[in-house]
Amino acid sequence: MTVQKFLAAAAVFVAAGSAFAADVIVAAPASASAASAVLAANLNLPVVNITKNAGATRADVRAEAVQFVKNHKTTLAVQLEQYKN
User: Any signal peptide, and if so, which residues (predicted)?
Assistant: First the structure.
C-alpha cells in the first residue's frame, strides 16, 4: 500500500514539474555568438591576475619541506617525552 502511495505521489510531482517547465518561453536569438556575449557580460565574475613572482619558489618550498622532515616528531614520540619529564 505504501509503495502505491509513493508511486502516485512521484507521478504527481513529475506531472507538476513538467507542467511548470512547459511554461517557460525562450526567445530565439539572432545568432548564438550574440547570445553568449550578452550572457558573458552579465556574469559579474571577479578578475584574478596570477603573476609569476607571487609566493615562494619551488626551491624554497622544497628546502622548507626537507627541514620539516628532519625535525619532525610523531605525536606518540612527543607524548612519550612529556610522560618522561
Answer: 1-21
CA distance 52 to 2: 63
Rounded Cα distance between 61 and 68, Å, is: 11
pLDDT digits (tens, 9 = 90+) for 23-66: 555 555 555 555 555 566 667 777 777 777 767 888 999 999 99
Closest CA to 29 of 16, 41, 38: 38
Q: Which residues, at least 6 apart from 35, have a Cβ–Cβ distance to it below 8 Å?
A: 29
Q: Nine-digit cell at 30? A: 539572432
The total of structural domains in the chain comes to 1
Q: For the whole model, what pTM was predicted?
A: 0.31
Counted residue by residue, the chain has a size of 85
